[in-house]
Sequence to fold (799 residues):
Amino acid sequence: MAVRITGLGLISAIGLTVAENLYSLENGKSGIAPVKYLDSERDFLVGEVKCSNAELSDHLGIKAQPISRTSLLGLTAAREAWGNNRYTNELRTGIISATSVGGMDTTEQFYQDYLDKNDPDYAVLRCHDSGNTTERIAAELGISGYINTLSTACSSGANAIMLGARLIEQGKLDRVLVGGTDALTNFTINGFRSLMIYDDRWCRPFDESRTGLNLGEGAAFLLLENDKSIRFSGNSTICCLSGWANAADAYHQTASSPEGTGATMAIQNAIDVSGLSALDISYVNAHGTGTKNNDLSESTAMINVFGDNIPDFSSTKPFTGHTLAAAGAIEAVFSVLAIQKGLIFPNLNYKTPIAETGLVPIMELQKDQPVLAVLSNSFGFGGNNSSLVFSVHR
Amino acid sequence: MYINAASTISHQPTFQNAGFSKLIEPLENSSELISPNYKEYIDAGLLRRMSKILRMSVAAAKDCLKQAEIEQPGAIIVGTGLGCLQDTEKFLNTFLSVEGLLPPTSFIQSTHNTIAGQISLSIGNHGYNMTHTQNTLSFEHALIDTSLLLSEGRDNIVAGAADEHIPFLEEAAEKLNLPSKNNLTSGASFFVLSKEKSDRSLARLKDVRTIGLVQDIDTEIDSFLSDNFLNVSEVDLILYSDLSPRVESVANKYFNEHYHADSKMINYTKLSGLYPTNSAFAMHYGIDRIQQHPELKKVLVLNGLNKINLGLTLIESLET
Amino acid sequence: MDSLKEDLKKHIIEELNLEDLQVSDIDDDALLFSADGVGLDSIDALELIVLMEKFYGIQVTNPDEGKEAFLTINTMADYIEKKKS
Fold:
């Protein structure tokens, strides 16, 4: 399988564009810092996009309110990925976004006012539902027809990319904008704190001393096109999405199985779909959240699939924070950049291997690498595991 | 694809009640959810934490598997418009008003994919597990995903949709001036969809399409029907939702222009009450009608619950 | 001590939604996290930590400490007594 990727868009704690993100990755600049934009009680460490809602709206020229931060972030990335492409009746164009919080950033402010009987603005509830987030993005880009939203917690973004590829493979669409977006909210920060996996220090994926994650926010989109669409657009191919898979762990509501059952299936099946072998994978962009449970389970899954030949791997979450539904999409763009620029990104904040597995991630930026195929993992709540394989376009 | 099982828990006597379409009347304003004894379907350890939407969904999905005599489906695909509202509201209340440590259960169960996740967990299924949430088109998107999977070689897929009512919705609807003539209700409908026809098959799901930000409803319906080599006069039953006057007028127009003795038009929202994925109720209702009335060959579900979205689902009897 | 245990069981049944259980159904030395005992899981463990703070003002900061303390109703009651004294 091979679906061509012709456009990228990205906004995260380390930059407002793909180029800014790449610069931060190359220079080891993390975007995680004490909370500044979110109205929050404490100085949590978070990966915020360094822009207020007003600045994002201005930048996008958005007048119609209310609009959630999740939509604003999504639209910023979707516009960059869509670029100068034109709408045409001759091509079946779709959009699939992913979000876990939807308009919760506005709903939680509403609900505080509602509880305080402080003249709550009911109008913001119109942008609460996740589907609305995507409809706003589609409307601004002039896309109608196949408009869809997936919500499978932390694997959502990867699943949106996978669904888009399958729709193109089966000839249902000619091109599709795929990705995910999530704003930082008090709802999710408090949620992960209630699970006691929110780290008050910098997250340390794959390190023995890891104690949890830092949340982030952002959005990323990729444009996938078939041959017919490329004949029309004249876009050049950056690289290909060649493998994908989703599997359920069916172990626990929040925790991953210690054997990495679902993760192993997702990784193995995605590699099988790509037609490559495990030995062809040059780099793994791991899910690597920094929780005890995920990193151990993911390490075990990597050992299950790769045995003694573990490829170079790293988690880029110490740069961006864990951006939930956007994570799979943001890391998909990082994976494409790894292939495009011949880079392998470092796993910041790492010192000591996990005792049970002993795996050592890449700690320094690797340049001029022959990165031919990248595996990107996204594992979520409820045991929802997805893996994608990106490869060079031949 | 063939529909080999169907199960609905709703404000109507739909659960394990084949032939319900003959019995039910439009809902009264005071209607309530008709719940089965969930303990018969769900392990007590899981059940104790489950909100309404989870109970309805897991019970309906398991009922489907039993009907289809399948232990493990090839995948589990769920559509939900608003997701797990009860737990979302509970966690909002908790973290905005409690000082100190927060109980995690309602947060864990607030995410949309808890529904599909709990189904997989309760039967130990490792297959493809997906959650679509495109407000009124969430169910149709789940069906489209199902058809893709069947083409990719998976089989016997559990697909369905669910939404739950919480009292806050009435308040919000009133403040937002949303039409309040409908009951706001809860419902969950699940199905087993398979590639091949079997002895258990109830009907055939011929085609399903979603048009987001729809511009011309007439043209979209025409092209959907013509893509299925169908003249509108061949549709025996149109099930439509009435929130959008445009869809109602289009449906009316078709009905009047192409009326034939057996054709019928039914507003399904009056039967199911209003929730974002009630087109899943309509599909079960259509299947049940086909079972009860052998002369019914083709049923079209015209989902215009939200005026910016159009969902089209074509169901056929097995004799077609 | 007996009233503390009774109290504890009430809170556990309430906070963990153990709808089918009565106070009298939980033995003082039944293993809370064993399938043969009460059958609690890791989400319940987090709920117990919240419960300890909410009703007894005790902060269980170390999860490993929690594991030992939450073995049975007896160990939980001992833990509460010890922390309070």
Notes: The domain at 2-194 of chain B is CATH 3.40.47.10 (Peroxisomal Thiolase; Chain A, domain 1). The longest strand of chain B covers residues 203-212. Strands of chain B lie at 2-9, 75-79, 128-132, 157-163, 187-194, 203-212, 237-240, 264-267, 298-303, 309-316. Chain B has a mean pLDDT of 92.
